[in-house]
Design a protein that fits this description.
alpha+beta, Aminopeptidase, Alpha-Beta Plaits, 2 domains, 7-stranded mixed sheet, 15 strands, globular, binds zinc ion
Length: 457
């Protein structure tokens, strides 16, 4: 195993990293409220000699921590936010909420934080030994619906980094090759005139009618947009609960996705016109505001190849008898596909990267990827068949196997970074591929004056 000496430091300090993951799981905090997690991580990094910069873009839970100076400058991402409505006991194989607790780690970001911290500290040992280069851990808040990295990216915090190596808990071990869609979230507000729906309906102008007509209009739009685009909506304010009233105010939130920001802009303009049409039909007024957005993911084949080699070089965690029993008990609660039934309950080998296929989802890591060459790894912390954002992924994210896979993630990220620091040619090739795809032009997808929904501790 290459870089064994540095990677072994992760096993030597395994207790620290597992403790970080468990503490963040226990103190689960949601988007922009991750104060305890940030204190825990930055405290450890500061003690290790990292220089900490807090409050990136004025966000109290966004930070960067750098060790060393100069080039190559490589970055690691860490996430630590949890999900609402995910209350679940850890390490059990049945749906069992924790009384009085509403927030839990259904996306494994507690592991994401612990594994990335492990990688940063291992690379620090390497930087000390070779006496060149720098490593920066970016603390990224609000991945779940808050697009924290988009706000960070628009400040330019990632633009002087040579490459970012990241990962995410999954059910397999594989370098991510698939791109993701750009998106924009827009709230349309309709205002009409309230009236008694029985006594004087002729005096009323219904904002709820306008929302319904807008949704019908967009349903017809769907046949005439690119197959790769998606438009979703939720009625966030139906105007009230009384049917004997003409609703004077109503709101609908749209999520518009497409393969790149340009196509999102075109689709956004068409959805805007449908909203105006709905207002015209109902004699109401419409206004709209963008509330979030992210770019499409830029993938870098050279970084994928380096990460893939590093992943193959490091031994995967071996599940114990107890892990296997837990895995089988969990799988008995899942709808496994025939292919999944054929697989061992935990992934036992690193898969070769798949040809990139279109994917309907989006990620705020995309905005990082527009600013510097970026690669992500999928790590098999969870049992095969585990649905994301589920009680099963929540329960497992504090389990012994998940944490051993987290240590593997730390090693895979650190090894990829050390390989890149020693291979200037690969790093240059990655930068060239990045330039070919972005032409060095990043346009933040959100309005310049949009602020994230920050929360006090
Ligand atoms: Zn996640």
């Amino acid at each position: 195993m290459l870089y064994e000496k540095y990677l072994n430091t992760i096993d030597e300090r395994a207790e620290l990293f597992c403790n970080v993951a468990d503490t963040i799981w226990d103190d689960a905090e949601t988007a922009y409220g991750e104060y305890k997690a940030v204190r825990l991580i930055t405290g450890i990094l500061e003690e290790a000699g990292f220089e900490i910069t807090c409050n990136i873009d004025g966000i109290p839970t966004a930070f960067k921590a750098t060790y060393g100076s100069g080039k190559p400058a490589i970055g690691i991402l860490a996430e630590y936010d949890a999900l609402h409505g995910m209350s679940q006991q850890p390490c059990v194989a049945e749906k069992l909420p924790i009384p009085g607790k509403n927030t839990c780690h259904g996306c494994g970001h507690n592991l994401f934080a612990g594994g990335s911290l492990a990688a940063a500290l291992a690379v620090k040992e390497y930087v000390d030994a070779v006496g060149r280069g720098s490593i920066t851990l970016f603390g990224c808040p609000a991945e779940e619906g808050g697009s924290g990295k988009v706000y960070m990216a628009r400040t330019g915090v990632f633009s002087d980094i040579d490459a970012i190596v990241s990962w995410h808990p999954e059910k397999m071990y594989m370098v991510r090759t698939r791109p993701s869609l750009a998106n924009l979230s827009v709230i349309y507000s309709f205002d009409g005139i309230a009236a008694h729906a029985g006594g004087s309906p002729e005096k009323g102008r219904s904002a709820l009618d306008a929302v319904e007509l807008m949704n019908v209009g967009v349903n017809f739009l769907r046949e005439h947009m690119p197959l790769t685009s998606r438009v979703h909506y939720a009625i966030t304010d139906a105007g009230g609960l009384a049917p004997n009233m003409v609703q004077s105010h109503a709101e609908v939130k749209y999520l518009i996705r497409a393969v790149n920001a340009g196509e999102v802009r075109e689709l956004h303009a068409r959805v805007d016109r449908i909203a105006q049409g709905a207002a015209l039909m109902t004699d109401t007024a419409v206004s709209s505001r963008v509330v979030s957005g992210c770019s499409d993911l830029i993938t870098i084949p050279t970084l994928q190849a380096v990460a893939n080699e590093a992943m193959h070089d490091i031994p995967l965690p071996v599940p114990t008898q107890q892990d296997m029993e837990y895995a089988r008990a969990l799988q008995s609660t899942m709808n496994l596909t025939d292919a999944e039934k054929e697989m061992p309950p935990y992934a036992l080998s690193v898969r070769d990267p798949a040809p990139p296929v279109a994917h309907g989802g989006s990620t705020d890591t995309a905005d990082v990827s527009w600013n510097c060459p970026t690669v992500q790894m999928h790590i098999g912390n969870w049992v095969v068949g585990t649905p994301g954002h589920s009680w099963q992924s929540t329960a497992q994210s504090r389990s012994p196997y998940a944490k051993r896979a987290m240590l593997y993630a730390g090693k895979a990220v650190a090894a990829t970074i050390m390989r890149l620091m020693d291979d200037g040619e690969a790093l240059n090739r990655a930068k060239y591929e990045h330039y070919q795809k972005t032409k060095g032009k990043y346009v933040p997808p959100i309005p310049a004056d949009l602020r994230p929904p920050l929360r006090e501790e």
